[in-house]
């Protein structure tokens, strides 16, 4: 499947055009541009089951439109790319890991990645799979690649925002016979295209900026290797990790504003990061788009946009909590990527190796001046 639907965007289109038109079916007179969700457990199926839709756990037309759309964003104009949608990012992550690995295999994970990865590690090890870890920064995963079957990259890392060189890691992994999966959640396809950088899989939580409204749980896997994607599809079928049609339809609807949201949120994130950098206290601000950030050089070589997440550290847990309480335009909530700004003291979950005062902030679509003013006022009030 090429990932380009009948009315879909083409490889030469800009990001906005592509986001608005991605995955649309052939125009039919008097029919909606984007058909409504198909709620079906089964389909009319006389004779031999040779059609595309047979049973609701296997396929659904609403998934098909969304999968084509995401494929057009992740790998525009590229033939042979397939996307599979899942009910959450962790379902997508699990599908790649558990469909590719067997007892006795070795996998390399980031030691500073998403906080659910330690849970994944424990389950992999329970199945007899060797798990190696190394930090994202400095391409440290290169040091533990020998003999691995799969390399899992998360760049930028969550929540630390370190970046690794995808091309370099892919080349090294492929030379050793390992597949490479990249968690593209924070960057989105408009910020980074892992398949163009050589990765075998691009995996993401669509819950975050891809859908952007904090009202849909979704995940996806995009890949170009037919055999590998067939294994991921089989895993989805076996475990029943399928999205609801309403969630898939809402996600597809939300893609139309992706470029608008990403442009606004990324620009405001840079403004927030610059304001934090210039604050009289040293806050250890991290944002790949800042020219002085340790990740900026490599990020600028492989990312087209730097994301909506900014991180910084306040001196104590109490100061961080006062800061969060003082914010008026920023909700104290987890997750990221939504149109309403959120922030949290990340250490409250206990799964990330961060200081007690570490703040992960997701920049929304508010007016930049208003948001920057709110953040600086809260910093000032919390210092009293």
Describe this structure in words.
With 384 residues, this protein is of the alpha/beta class. The chain has helices at 15-21, 61-74, 89-100, 117-126, 166-175, 226-239, 245-255, 258-277, 296-302, 317-326, 368-382; strands spanning 82-86, 106-110, 130-134, 150-154, 179-183, 201-205, 219-223, 309-313, 331-332, 342-345, 358-362. β2 (106-110), α4 and β3 (130-134) form a beta-alpha-beta unit. α2 runs parallel beside α7, α3 packs across α6 and α8 (258-277) runs parallel beside α11 (368-382). The protein is globular, with a radius of gyration of 21 Å. Mean pLDDT is 95; it is low at 1-5.
Gross morphology is globular
| Helix and strand element order | HHEHEHEEHEEEHHHHEHEEEH
Amino- and carboxy-terminal Cα gap:
59 Å
Query: Could you say which structural class the secondary elements and strand pairing correspond to?
Result: alpha/beta
* Poorly predicted parts: 1-5
Figure out the total of helices.
11
The number of E-state strands comes to 11
Query: Share of helix among residues?
Result: 25-40%
Computed CA radius of gyration, to the nearest angstrom: 21 Å
Sum up the structure in keywords.
single chain; 384 residues; alpha/beta; seven-stranded mixed sheet; four-stranded mixed sheet; globular; disordered N terminus
